[in-house]
Amino acid sequence: MSRIGYARVSTIDQDLETQIVKLKAEGCDIIRSEKVSGASRDGRAELATIIDFLRPGDELVVTRLDRLGRDTRDVLNLIYECEQKAAFVTVLDPHVSTRGEMGHIVLTVLGMVAQMERRFIKERQREGIEQAKRQGVYLGGKARLDHQKVKDMHEGGAGASEIARAVGCSRMQIYRILQSNR
């Protein structure tokens, strides 16, 4: 039986260290991490790898339920997939596990709360942007990557992998930038 930790943050500039330290302290043999949105399971390769390799008796451990996902259906589907492999899911904060029937109920409720919280965040964000636009102070989102540097490196013969390492992002992001500059 293995305890497998999963750590996730939504953006590249967020830090995974706090989650990793907690998972190590819980005795996780393996810890997989990624920097990708939890809004859906798309693009979450590390989580998919964990699910694929779960064996009977293994335990998937996350620090908080929203690290698994912010959509109730996705979270419940993940838990179901783990159960189909005779594996368990444990959330550290608050401490809940699928080892008992009450754990299933609590995780379902927590999943619903996480989804509701995500909707509230999006609504507040949308309202704030609309208000800023009305006041004429909305300038749009801040560019996280230097698009000109990406374009210059590409024109200089650098490949997507090399550019991605240089600017600190994924190759997919490089492809998107290059395609948007055409």
TrEMBL record:
Pfam families hit by this protein: HTH_7 (PF02796), Resolvase (PF00239)
DNA-binding is among the record's keywords: yes
UniProt keyword annotations, A-Z: DNA integration, DNA recombination, DNA-binding
Active site, renumbered: 10
InterPro entries: Homeodomain-like_sf, Recombinase_CS, Resolv_N, Resolvase-like_N_sf, Resolvase_HTH_dom, SSR_resolvase
Domain Resolvase/invertase-type recombinase catalytic positions: 2-136
Membrane-crossing segments per the record: none
An annotated Gene Ontology molecular function: DNA binding
SMART domains, per the entry: Resolvase (SM00857)
Matches recorded under CDD domains: SR_ResInv
Record GO biological process: DNA integration
Protein family (similarity comment): Belongs to the site-specific recombinase resolvase family.
Name of this chain's protein: Recombinase family protein
